[in-house]
Structures are given as structure tokens and as C-alpha cells.
Protein: TetR family transcriptional regulator
Organism: Sulfitobacter guttiformis
Amino acid sequence: MARTAGSHSDITGPRVREAALRLFARGGYAAVSMRAIAAEVGVQAGALYNYTPDKQTLLFDLMEGHMTELLAAGVDDPALGAEARLQAFVAFHIRFHHARPDAVFIAYMELRNLSPENFARVEALRREYENGLESILREGVEAGIFRVADTKIATLAIIAMLTGVNTWFRAGGRLSIEEVTAQYWDMVRRAVS
Amino acid sequence: MARTAGSHSDITGPRVREAALRLFARGGYAAVSMRAIAAEVGVQAGALYNYTPDKQTLLFDLMEGHMTELLAAGVDDPALGAEARLQAFVAFHIRFHHARPDAVFIAYMELRNLSPENFARVEALRREYENGLESILREGVEAGIFRVADTKIATLAIIAMLTGVNTWFRAGGRLSIEEVTAQYWDMVRRAVS
DNA sequence: GTCTATACGCCGATAGAC
DNA sequence: GTCTATCGGCGTATAGAC
């Protein structure tokens, strides 16, 4: 397809999102200017508005994209037993979040900078993800494999615990991500058994 | 003690910190202006500088004050057994954090807005708090009461799980904070037993 | 699609009167 | 201790040339 000279829409768009993701994660949405994002990409500030109508939409697109990816990448197999499903969930959650620390950070820290409408849409996606875990716990309880007083609370407790890995784990430290995953699985398994 | 007319140092100072705490928690440090804080207090922006040398120090004082309170309020009694100490820690952590959601929110979300020196000081206080929990877990492991592969990881996992209560718990909901505490204690106890 | 230039406003912080 | 006034700078977003 013919293109006007100087046209880079197909490559600049992703680069804008990557730069915004990195800078928002490092400095926070409110503290990062459109000029700073443009400088990171290597264009002038005005050019960004070819790729997003405004800064708010740029933030929302990053968060919605992250949550959509998270839901699409889910590994749950209802044909397995509840314990195997739970173990797969723990491993998946840690691995997925470990692979994209910037997006995870933004998804948790910048919720308050979303407009009410955008906040509601992101929250709906988060609830959908939580429901996936809760259905596993509920199946385990019904099968008599798990003992959990309240599956909703256990869901939130487990997700908070697992996501917390991102706040302290650094590659090259005392433990590998696989060892950490094994230990978290051990704690989760015992907490619901 | 005689005072100049218009002098309100003893009352305005706390009100500045309260307003900053509330506004930082709601909108984020970077998005809240000194003018907005002044308006909340009912003074002009310039008057704030009688109570803090700059905005950064105001943030630091809030975070350091919160962490110092947290450490001073600790209820640990080494004379008790490890399980009783752990149960007391869980109840204390949930109660203390539940009582000051704004300070907790700021302490977690605004770390990146601290200068490197201030960040190091707040982090040292946080590590001190974590060490309190880890010593409980270590005693329990040595006494053969707890079974934990790595006390440092278990410490971080438990704190993340407990602090997570603040992100979803709302008074007047389905469960009271006491019922929630009982369920978290049940999960923590089993995770380390 | 990107550039330069700019409109318009708020930012943190300070000076000096009262 | 608080006020008013102000400095110099940076914020988002847009207009119009190329």
C-alpha cells in the first residue's frame, strides 16, 4: 500500500504506547507529560495526537489492553480437577505478571486517574478475571477437596498475595521465579485445604 | 503563651497534614497542587510554607509519620507462643490498616515520588516492620509449630495478602471487619502449618 | 504524518506588606 | 502567620504549513 513520505503510522503507534507504558510506570500518569512521551518516541508533542485523542485515552488503552491480554491468556481447563486447576492458575498468574511488570504496575496504581466510564470498564475486566479463580475454588469446595469459608474472600486474598510477588521479586536474586512459584503454590494449597 | 493576632500555628499545621493526606490519597501526589491543599485548609498557598519547606517534605512527613505510628503500635509479645503471636499480628495489621486507609494508600502508592534519600528512610521502616513478622515465623519454625520453606517469602506473601483487604473492604458490606479478620487468620494459619 | 508555533492556564515557590 | 502579587516555567491541546 502506497504511503505518503514521512508516514509511519504503523510503527509510531506501538512506539507511543510502549513509551507511555514505560514512563507512566516509572513516574506516574500525572507526572509524565505528553512532551516527555514524545521525546521518548523521538517526535514532537503534537504528533502524538495522531495516535490518541488525548492523554486519558492513552492511559485507558494501555490498561484495557493489559486486562484483555490477561483474560485471553488464561490457561484454565475445566476438565481438570480443582487442585490441578488452582495450581495452574497460581503458576500462570505469577508468570504472566512477572513478564510485564510495567503494565501490572499501571493497572494497579493508575485506576484513580481513569475517568469514571473508563474505570468502570477496567473494573469489569478485573472482576471477570477474579471470577475465573473463584469458580475454581467453588468447584473444589463442592467436590470436598478445598475447605474455604468464603470463596470471594479467598479469591481476593490469593490474588493479592500472588500479585505481591511483583513488588519484591528481582531476577538474579536468591531465588528463581520457578522456586518462588513453587513456594507460593505450597502456601496457597495449604491455605485452602 | 501570648500570640500575635492571626497566629494559628498549633492548629493550622495539623490541618495542613490532614488536608494533604486526604487529597494525596484521592488524587495522587503529582496531581494535587499546593493551591488545592491551601484551599482545603482555608488559607492561601503561600501560608503553607510556614509548615513545610516544600511539597516533597510534606509527602515524606506523612509517610514517615505513618510508618512510625505503625511500628510504635505493634502488639507483639515475645512471651507468647508463635501461633498466638502470629494471630495477634494478623488481627493488628488488618485493624491498624483498616483504620487509616488514606495513609496506607499513600504509603504504598507514592513511594516513587519520594526523593532517593527519603525513599531509603521509608523503606528502612518498612523493612523493620517486615522483620517483626519474620521473627514470629522463624520462632514458629524452630519450635516445630510452623512449616515454612522460606520465612522471608512467607512474610512478604502474608503482608501482601493482609494489606489487600484495604483495596476491597467497605464497612456496611456483607461481612464485618471482625469476620474478615477471622477468615484471613484461618488462611494464614493453614498456609504456615 | 510530522513539524513549528502558540493559546491559555496552572505549577511550585518567593517577596514584602500588614 | 497570613495575605497579595508575582516570577519563570511547564502543562495539554490545537492550528496551519509542509
